[in-house]
Amino acid sequence: MNEIVTVIDLETTGLNPATDHITEIAAIRAEVGPCGYVREIGRFQTFVALPTIAGETITIPDFITELTGIKTDDLRGAPRHWFAVDSVLDFARDSRLVAHNAPFDLSFIDHIYDGLPSGGFACTRAMSRLIDPDENASLAPTCERYGIALNGHHRAMNDVEATLHLYAVLREKAEVNGVTYRNVVVDSPERPLTYTPPGAIVRTIERRQTKEVA
After folding, report:
1. The 3-state secondary structure of 5-18, one letter per residue
2. Contact 98/167 with Cβ under 8 angstroms?
3. Domains in the chain with CATH codes
4. Is there a contact between 107 and 195 (Cβ–Cβ < 8 Å)?
5. What phi and psi, each to the nearest 5 degrees, are found at residue 95?
6. Separation between Cα atoms, residue 8 and residue 97, nearest integer Å
7. What is the H or E stretch that residue 46 is in?
8. Long-range pairs for 99-102 at CB < 8 Å and ≥24 separation?
9. Given this model, what pLDDT does residue 117 score?
């Protein structure tokens, strides 16, 4: 059965939604179906302005600029975080949210929006761990394993494009093999959950030898 999904990716100044900030949001709304079928419906992308705290504007750390290529100056004139998040959630309305390592992206959205959409979610990292438990579930190696192009990793739209096609492939494998993946997150010793989305099903997978780096 076909479904409407919105694949989302956030770039941020760090890993903690309580102390770090979104710098970029990208999303693709698409119809996904059996045999890897993908029909793109629309795209959303914006930089996000950093806040001013105690009179001082937050800046992007140098190591984040090295990783993503995003500089503080790139965010000049961008919408505020609450407007950007509200806009992408409106774009995603009546669809399933999909992200690679969804707990990370959803933790930042929940921190700003104080709640998540009711359409449910899917985490392609969790799907990879459930389908291929002995393989590295990070985005780049998972895409490489399935022959999916990932160019310019750690820029939001590039990651979204790859995640969309990865979801279509993993969705088919999960359906064929009877793997439950909707609203499922994975907890593991090498990458413990720091945020559990409301209503999520938590699956625990034991440590494996391959180290995940991104």
Report:
1. EEEEEEEECCCCCC
2. yes
3. 3-204 (3.30.420.10)
4. yes
5. -140, 170
6. 7
7. strand 37-47
8. 99/7, 99/8, 99/9, 99/123, 99/124, 99/163, 100/9, 100/124, 100/125, 100/139, 100/159, 100/163, 100/166, 101/125, 101/139, 102/126, 102/185, 102/197
9. 82
Question: Tokens 């105690």 sit at which residue?
Answer: 54
Cα distances (Å, whole numbers) of residue 9 to 20, 108, 126: 16, 11, 15
pTM reported for the whole predicted model: 0.93
Give 65-122 as a DSSP string: HHHH---GGGGTTPPPHHHHHHHHHHHTTTSEEEETTHHHHHHHHHHHHSS--TT-EE
The one-character DSSP state at 55 is T
Q: What are the average pLDDT values for consecutive 10-residue runs of the chain, which has 214 residues?
A: 97 96 98 96 98 88 95 96 96 96 96 86 97 94 96 93 98 96 93 93 76 53
CB neighbours (10 Å) of residue 122?
A: 23
At 209 the pLDDT is 54
Under 8 Å between Cβ of 138 and 214: yes
Angle formed by the axes of helices 102-113 and 124-131, nearest 10°: 150
